[in-house]
Amino acid sequence: MNETALTVHQITRPHGFPTAEHFAFVESSLPEPAAGSALVKNLYWSVDPYHREMMDDVPGGFALDAPLEGRTIGQVIASHSPLLAEGEIVFHRQGWRTHSVVTPEEIRRLPRFDGVPLTAYLGILGGTGLTAYVGLTRIAQLREGEDLFVSAAAGGVGTATGRFARLLGAGRLVGSAGSAAKADHLTREVGYDAVFDYHDGPAADLLGKVAPDGIDVFVDNVGGEQLAAAVGALREFGRIVRVGTISQYNTPDAPPPRFDHADIVEKSIRMEGFLVRNHQAVQEELYEFAVPHLRSGRLALDETVVDGFEHLVDAFLGMLRGRNIGKIIVRDRTQSPSLSPSPSPSLSVN
Known about the structure:
Elements: E1 4-10, E2 23-29, E3 38-46, H1 50-54, E4 72-79, E5 89-92, E6 99-102, E7 107-109, H2 127-139, E8 148-150, H3 156-167, E9 173-177, H4 180-190, E10 194-197, H5 203-210, E11 215-220, H6 224-233, E12 234-242, H7 246-249, H8 262-266, E13 270-273, H9 283-296, E14 303-307, H10 312-320, E15 327-331
Parallel strand pairs: 8-9, 8-11, 9-10, 11-12, 12-13, 14-15
Antiparallel strand pairs: 1-2, 3-4, 3-6, 3-15, 4-5, 5-7
Helix pairs in contact: 2-3, 5-6
């Protein structure tokens, strides 16, 4: 193999929005797998909001001048392990590089479901979908007929939350997004009843117009002003599911949201955050719930797919600026949407 490998390194810490100058593409010879490991050619890369938090000088954050991690799907091209066969399609977290050396303990084999593209395993069936599913079923414990508000509703978690909430029998479903085009997609394609553009005025006023009778559950991807608005709109025994704080990722000096803390007590509101990595046991339940709906067409994929590893940083920066609808995924130029993962004997979905 005469190929070379590319990795993406973070070379400086941003203050505010990152730019391309905070990253470097580093070329090297292909890594050689040691005994017990395998070389994977990566095919699909996940671009996620949490990468922005990891860019700061925080515990567990990205090291400077080192390859970045990320959720990735690739194909084994050379193996020195009897547990990793050449040609296998695997999921791992040694991403943001064209080639990765992995051990059997560092990969997850993906089940094969006819008609389900590989991109789904980074989106609706991956960490993005699992976040939405856990948020609704475990944290909010959504009940049929309850009304829901989702911030950043046009993102990966927001679109998955909307589609899952519809399948779970939610009542009125409202959201916020960053443009009229996104709002139109959400109401026309995803199943939202109403969506406001958060640029159009105070969040409390905008939420009051689309949900005049209040809400039961708020799935919060943004924090800030929209969190404060939701506290005011929640009914008795309302729940807030804290997923992320996008509004503060690139504005570290922004003041915290201001709301009437008495509402939390007087309306018996529960607010809970979670990390999806602590809910991996729910993964097969997600497959069992979502795959039949994907096959029937009741559940669609909301994806922005970017071709070419060289555009990985651009895709990440575009996501931070809200230039995607749904989950954003970078695809190797050699791939077609038809490539399927290896069969899995551990799960059968009918």
